[in-house]
Amino acid sequence: MELKDIVNIVLGIIASIGGSGVIIWFLVKLFANTLADKYKEKIKLGFEKELESYRNQLEVLKATTLKYNDRQFELYLDLWKNLQELKFSCLDLWSLANKPNLQKFKESLKKTDRQIETSSILIELNHYSELREIIKNFKEYDFGKQRLIENRINNINEVQIDEMIEFNRERKDKCLELIELIKTEIQTKIKGGN
After folding, report:
1. How far is residue 74's CA from residue 76's CA, in Å, rounded to a whole number?
2. CB environment 5-42: b (16+ within 10 A), e (fewer)
3. Quick one: which of 4, 71, 80, 119 is 20 to 30 A from 52 by CA?
4. SS3 annotation, the chain
5. Tell me, what's the pLDDT at 35?
6. Residue 148, pLDDT score
7. Which parts of the chain register pLDDT below 70?
8. Measured distance CA(17)–CA(11) in Å, rounded
9. How far apart are CA 69 and CA 158, in angstroms?
10. What's the confidence (pLDDT) of residue 109?
11. What domains can you pick out in the chain, each with its CATH number?
12. Structure confidence at residue 154 (pLDDT)
């Protein structure tokens, strides 16, 4: 055998090993890419399902929140109307302390107090506290006005009547101040503030 024949045989062996190596390498790479693509699709599908689940949860939360906000908005409007009626009947009673005005005030106070309690689940906690404070002061005002009317009928002395009037003025002013404070807070909330 000549050197040329030996070189051809060695080159043939190397070529056949290299050729099959290239073929094996190509098949392994193709198989690996196919597995990688399938794995990527599986992961992508999992993320898409999870994302869709989050979207659905978000939609439910959004619908619930909108319903709550709409109901709360309606409640605050009704509550505001009742507070205004209470304020007006308070001012009427302040202008003329008599039994009909006292009765009108008592009815407004009772109506507003009941609405606050029955709607308390939808009222912001800080507003609820302020509303309870308003009702407490209006009840003291009611008591003071009732005492004043009775004492005027019984002709009690002017010094005691002046003290009762001052007591009532303080309660009235405090209530009107609290109503204005809560008005500002509710307006801020309605406009989307905190």
Report:
1. 6
2. eeeeeeeeeeeeeeeeeeeeeeeeeeeeeeeeeeeeee
3. 71
4. CCHHHHHHHHHHHHHHHHHHHHHHHHHHHHHHHHHHHHHHHHHHHHHHHHHHHHHHHHHHHHHHHHHHHHHHHHHHHHHHHHHHHHHHHHHHHHHCCCHHHHHHHHHHHHHHHHHHHHCHHHCCHHHHHHHHHHHHHHHHHHHHHHHHHHHHHCCCCHHHHHHHHHHHHHHHHHHHHHHHHHHHHHHHHHCCCC
5. 76
6. 81
7. 1, 7, 10-11, 13-29, 192-194
8. 10
9. 52
10. 94
11. 3-190 (1.20.1440.210)
12. 78
* Closest listed residue to residue 118, CA positions, set 105, 108, 128: 128
- Contact partners, residue 46, CB within 8 Å, separation at least 6: none
Q: What angle do CA 83, 86, 91 make, to 5 degrees?
A: 125
pTM: 0.65
Give the distance from CA 89 to its chain's centroid.
32
